[in-house]
Amino acid sequence: MRITAAIARRPHAPLELADIELAEPRDDEVLVRVVACGICHTDLVCRDQALPVPLPVVLGHESAGIVERVGAAVTGVAAGDKVLLSYDSCAACPSCRAAQPFYCHDFFACNFAARRRDGSTPLRAEGVAVGGRFFGQSGFATHCIAHPRNLVRVAADADLAMLAPLGCGVQTGAGTVLNALRPPPGARIAVFGCGTVGLSAVLGAVLAGCARIVAVDPLPARRALAQSFGATDLIDPASLPATADAVRDLLGDGADYAVECTGIPAVATAAVHALAPRGTAALVGAMPAGAEYRFDAIKLMTQGLTVRGVIEGESRPAEFLPRLIALHAAGRFPFDRMLTRFAFAEINAAIDAAERGAVVKPVLVM
């Protein structure tokens, strides 16, 4: 079938809206009409090749839509179902068998290769193959091919444009706190970077009952939004070494937990150095391939610090996304206040607004 998609052809260049060909779903695949798709920092990192996804490619991995067709072997979803799309996994490796698909041994192949496992792609433009399985979806398009394992069914009356960002940025931030770190009530936590992931981490810290929640971000509007979400303390990181000192001074001896959401190595260093003894830092931000982080080894050892990576908030989407939706319905998880909707044709304007910090989470409405 013919669809409209936004193709990334060159780093740092506008995406190209084009009429291209989408193949029929295979027996184990699902055709989804995309209703909305969030724009995530990871999309831009991949466009610019800091994480080298093969170009040309259709990016987009916070999709929401309606199932139009299912392959002969597909169960669990049917035509007409409203669905959210999240990351893909192999379903066969030790991590997947242990119900930890977020640490799939083939996570990069399943999500960043932009190809099926056999190397094929369902997209072609003027006879040229285009990456069409980015995060198992390639959602910057009017339709996409997905797999049942990276779909989450939602209610028939669900607002898909509101729920789309749950599939990556929101679940990553909230899940890092609620699923991975699991701070006890009364804990002290510092969140470095208040974009979608960081603000979702703030919301998660409120749900966890953290007593002190420090939000670190250079943009006043984002610090103010973090405060409205429940952050108890705000820091403008004018100097990163001083920022670590500021967090420690603010909290007495430092934070029990830190969440680094920027992917900037110097920020990660500050996050770790802001920890109290026996504290844990979660590195969440999408960093360039090959990035190396530096920490004070003596501090790490003598204070019993833990530094760990977290992917996708350790979320099992079919379980965690309905939980977040229910919390939102109860008024306890107002993530929708981060969202700004754009028409699909405005995708490059939406990306520009995100890169300038004018909006937190742009959502494309197809």
Summarize the SSE layout with pairings.
Layout: E1 2-8, E2 16-22, E3 30-38, H1 41-47, E4 57-58, E5 62-70, E6 82-85, H2 94-97, H3 107-111, E7 123-125, E8 128-130, E9 143-146, E10 151-154, H4 160-163, H5 169-181, E11 188-192, H6 196-208, E12 212-216, H7 220-229, E13 233-235, H8 240-251, E14 255-260, H9 265-273, E15 275-283, H10 297-302, E16 306-309, H11 317-329, E17 339-343, H12 347-356, E18 361-365
Parallel strand pairs: 11-12, 11-14, 12-13, 14-15, 15-16, 17-18
Antiparallel strand pairs: 1-2, 1-4, 2-7, 3-5, 3-9, 3-18, 5-6, 6-10, 7-8
Helix pairs in contact: 5-6, 6-7, 8-9
Can you walk through the features of this model?
The protein has 366 residues and is of the alpha/beta class. It folds into 2 domains: 198 residues, Quinone Oxidoreductase, Chain A, domain 1; 139 residues, Rossmann fold. Helix content is 29%, strand content 26%. The chain is built from 12 helices and 18 strands. The strands form 3 sheets. Strands 3, 5, 6, 9, 10, 17 and 18 form a 7-stranded mixed β-sheet that branches. It has a 6-stranded parallel β-sheet with strand order 13-12-11-14-15-16, sandwiched between helices. The longest helix is centred in the middle third of the chain and has 13 residues. The chain is globular, with a radius of gyration of 20 Å.
